[in-house]
Design goal:
Elements (H helix, E strand, L loop, with lengths): L9 H7 L1 H4 L2 H4 L1 H16 L1 E2 L9 H7 L10 E2 L2 E2 L5 H18 L3 E3 L5 H12 L5 E5 L15 H4 L2 E5 L10 H11 L3 E4 L10 H11 L2 E5 L4 H5 L12 E5 L10 E5 L5 H12 L5 H15 L1 H23 L3 E2 L8 E5 L7 H10 L2 E2 L1 E3 L13 E5 L1 H5 L4 H21 L5 H17 L7
Parallel strand pairs: 1-13, 5-6, 5-7, 7-8, 8-9
Antiparallel strand pairs: 2-3, 4-10, 9-10, 11-12, 12-15, 14-15
Helix pairs in contact: 5-13, 6-13, 7-12, 9-10, 14-17, 15-17, 17-18
The protein binds D-serine (DSN).
């Protein structure tokens, strides 16, 4: 039978059109191969980057959904485009679930990323040159909390607080003294490489004393907060921001949460139209899915296992001769100080990668090496816990990390090839026993 497209009805022609029918492997074999290789990398290596996780298939499906096609500038019920009925459904569900999950009155689920959620708070509440306070990058803070190379540090006046030299914990007396001296309009608590419990009520007292707004960027710990494995920043903090892809295990994105209605208009206006145009509705849908998952009872169990596993990993590293900054962890993450081994974070990251253990080099408090070299590595347990590792597996992982680091201490940057090969084979055994996306 002839299938000359020109003789077919438009409906039949569409059914023949590769645009509608080709799967990714056919339409774009190079990208399909890269995605396949990335899946294999995630399966075959142990992910120890503290800010990464393994999202569910449901989250991935929503992220890859037809909401990719939709413009929905505005907010539910008040859009600048037609056809937003179902966009309203998913955004309203995302907002309601975020509020329920974190126990607050208002949520904006449109920020595209962690940087944008924090920029929105700055745009809503500060004027250029205003003074704000955040944790120093060298003590575990984040770029968007006042780094001189970030907009937060270029357009505003950041003053920072840090950790004490003697115990590497945040010194709340120093935080109070800095706040009294500089009278910041905004104080930020939260960071990316601080492994101890945040004392939100102590920050509240300091913010009240100097009349500052208190923002918590809980990006790293929001899954633990959702699961009750870290105290909540509410009711102490005025505004709480979080990425959704770290311990919370959702799509890559951000959210802003608050309780006082006076922040509603400035924050919503700052996100749209202040900073962003059309929200990524496919990602908003995926956030709603992730919040539903985090509201389920087994997420509490997950969050507590993340912390238990981090404690097991830290203990194992210490038993095997590696120093943990501040002597341990209360959350999902830890910094390992490699100074005594005379191994740089850069070499450790590369050596561990050769042994199929993925992590990132990270400055330690008072580090004398550059951020491209560093004296430490940062490790986290959210992704490994998702694939099913428990304390026994994390104790083994601690031993494997120490073996690789000892090889680097002995042989320099190239490490000990035999040790790395042996570690690779034990990593492979663990990864085979605990697959990611088992039915993919
Ligand atoms: N990149 C995130 C982290 O790794 O902590 C912060 O932006």
């Amino acid at each position: 039978m002839s299938t000359n497209p020109s003789t077919l009805t438009s409906e039949a022609a569409n059914s023949m059109d590769p645009f509608w029918n080709d799967d990714l492997a056919t339409a774009d074999p190079e990208i399909a191969a890269a995605i396949g290789n990335e899946l294999a990398r995630q399966q075959d290596k142990i992910e120890l980057i503290a800010s990464e996780n393994i999202a569910s298939k449901a989250v991935l499906e929503a992220t890859g959904s037809v909401f990719t096609n939709k413009y929905a500038e505005g907010y539910p019920g008040k859009r600048y485009y037609g056809g937003c009925d179902y966009a309203d459904v998913v955004e309203t569900l995302a907002i309601d679930r975020a509020k329920e999950l974190f126990g607050c009155s208002f949520a904006n689920v449109q920020p595209n990323s962690g940087s944008q959620m924090n920029q929105a708070v700055f745009l809503a509440l500060l004027q250029p040159s205003d003074t704000f306070m955040g944790l120093d990058l060298n003590s575990g803070g984040h770029l968007t909390h006042g780094s001189p190379v970030n907009m937060s540090g270029k357009w505003f006046n950041p003053v920072s607080y840090g950790v004490r030299a003697e115990d590497e914990l945040i010194d709340m007396d120093a935080v109070a003294a800095t706040a009294r001296e500089h009278q910041p309009k905004l104080i930020i608590c939260g960071g990316t490489a601080y492994s101890r419990t945040w004392d939100f009520s102590a920050f509240r007292a300091i913010a009240d004393e100097v009349g500052a707004i208190l923002l918590c960027d809980m990006s790293h710990i929001s899954g633990l907060v959702a699961g009750g494995a870290h105290p909540s920043p509410f009711p102490h903090c005025d505004i709480v921001t979080s990425t959704t892809h770290k311990s919370l295990r959702g799509p890559r994105s951000g959210i802003i949460l608050w309780n006082d209605e006076k922040f509603t208009k400035p924050l919503n206006m700052a996100v749209f139209p202040g900073l962003q145009g059309g929200p990524l509705m496919h990602v908003v849908a995926a956030k709603a899915v992730a919040f539903r998952e985090a509201l389920a009872p087994d997420f509490k169990d997950y969050a507590h296992r993340v912390v238990e596993n981090a404690r097991a990993l830290a203990a194992s590293l210490e038993e095997n001769g590696l120093r943990i900054v501040s002597g341990g962890t209360d959350n999902h993450s830890m910094l390992v100080d490699l100074t005594a081994k005379d191994v740089t974070g850069k070499d450790a990251e590369k050596g561990l990668d050769r042994a199929w253990l993925t992590c990132n080099k990270n400055g330690i408090p008072f580090d004398t090496r550059s951020p491209f070299v560093t004296s430490g590595i940062r490790l986290g347990t959210p992704a490994g816990t998702t694939r099913g590792f428990g304390p026994a597996e994390f104790r083994t992982i601690g031993k494997l990390i120490a073996e690789v680091v000892d090889g680097l201490a002995k042989n320099g940057a190239e490490g000990d090839a035999q040790v790395e090969e042996s570690v690779r084979s034990r990593v492979a055994d663990l990864c085979t026993a605990f697959p990611v996306y088992p039915n993919a």
